[in-house]
Amino acid sequence: MMPRGQTYLVAAKPQQQPSEADETTNNHNQQEDEHDHDHDQQHQHVDGGSESEQRRSNSLSHQKAAAATTETTANVTVQPRPASGNILQPAATAANGVSSSSSSSSSSSSATPSTSAAASTATSTTPSLTPVVSTFLAGPGPPIGVVCGHFSMQGVRAEMEDRVTMLPHPSFNQVAEVADGIHRSFFAVFDGHGGDVSAEYCRQHVHMNLLSSDAFLHGGSQLECLRTALTRTEAEFCAACRRINLVSSSGTTAITAYLVNDKLVVGNIGDSRAVLCRAGGKALNASEDHKPGRQDERQRIEALGGRVGITEEDAFRNGSRPCSCLWGFMTAGRPLRVFPGGLSVSRTIGDISMKTNALVSSEPEMVEVILNPSDEFLILACDGVWDTMSSQQAVDCVRKVLTTCRKEDVLTLEAQADLAAKNLANWAFRRGSTDNISVVVVMFQHTPESIATAAAANTTMKKEKK
Question: Are both 379 and 445 inside the same structural domain?
Fold first, then answer.
């Protein structure tokens, strides 16, 4: 049994650029860049090239992936949780080296104009789950096994500000000190900006706040467990900063997934994203990006007296803009931002200076769904991925690697998940991402019991329709 004061955590480690082996692994993806729109409209199957050639490519990639796995994940790493208040001790060093401007690591546009436009167009066609205010699904059904992997790279940024948490079953229950037969897993990607203080705080506290929530302790809904964890972490972080008079520009987005047997709950704050791969490789957005240009986010910001624009001058412009052609050339590839402040994300944890007027919100947007046997995997990734590709492209990329690995049958499931995450991150880097990139891939292992339960529920539903 684990001591209460310790947690299984995975910290994102920086990697400057892809290796030569990654170039071999990503060869098919590079060839498909010219056909992005077609790529979004139909499922892409694994190329039927030479089997020996694929085996050599996969073997070489596995060697590099294994090394990266040892360095970055080591399966699960045990780290003690710092005493209350001490987590912000390195904040002075981190904050002092950061400009007081509220530029976000998730705020800069990471892709070239053409790539951003293509990704934006393709993303708009990906269906999304509807966010919910309160739980509406029944309790969890039969358990579903999970295998997870992750990969992070620093890219061209000067610092690595992303953090990752992976607590698959049974690690989560060991941390929670429960043995009730329920399979619980927790995964998160925190995309920090203005330093890594906020992202590091979330990495160490969100799952612990989930475990200490009233909903978890007293058998409440899984949705409320995760919502409470996120809101409490935000409140505690801001309170700790004020307590030591640290007016920090550090903030982070948070994309979190809490899996309880066959029920998946996703909590999102910011512009990282969760994408579910359903039957036939179809992408389904399990979260919606919190960008200032999103209609409801823009209306909320403007109702509070803020403005949205590419620059502060543009945001508070009273007159007309330059001609459309000139304006398009001047602003190509540049994101919309919240002013005053200049963040290009409309919801975050941290960013104390932006919370005084509530222009930047910390309210999580929640989604929950019952998984079915056709659900293959879940992707959690920061905007370093989504600025350069659509949800469907990411699903196709991961699915291609997993399909090839199953055919080759030379890697463990954990190594397959790691390789798929690494391949997706490297592809985003090659497509022009200039941000830190972090990816978590969660593969679902459906049991006979979960398949039978889903089939029975489907049969009952059909009878009710008749």
Answer: yes
What is 147-199 written as a DSSP string? EEEEEEE-TTSSS--EEEEEE-TTHHHHHHT--SS--EEEEEEEEEESSSHHH
Using CA atoms, how far residue 353 sits from 31, 343, 359, 420, in Å, is: 45, 11, 10, 38
Tokens standing for residue 23: 């170039």
At residue 377, the 3 state secondary structure works out as strand
Whether residue 113 is found in the same domain as residue 53: yes
In a domain? residue 284: yes
Q: Is residue 255 domain-shared with residue 381, that is, in the same domain?
A: yes
User: CA-to-CA distance for 294 and 315, rounded, in angstroms?
Assistant: 15
State which residues form the domain around 56. 19-294+358-465
312 and 428 belong to one structural domain: no
Do residues 292 and 315 make contact, with C-beta atoms less than 8 angstroms apart? no
End-to-end CA distance of the chain: 51
With contact defined as beta carbons under 8 Å apart, do 19 and 64 qualify?
A: yes
Tell me 367's DSSP state. Answer: E
Q: Give me the average pLDDT of each 10-residue run along the chain (466 residues).
A: 38 51 50 48 40 44 41 33 34 31 35 41 64 58 92 95 97 94 96 94 97 94 96 94 78 97 96 95 96 93 90 60 49 77 92 87 95 95 96 97 92 96 97 96 84 60 40
The answer as to whether 362 is a domain residue is yes
Domain count, the chain: 2
For residue 48, give the DSSP letter. -
- The token pair that represents 236 in the structure block: 């505690």
Cβ(254)–Cβ(193) under 8 Å? no
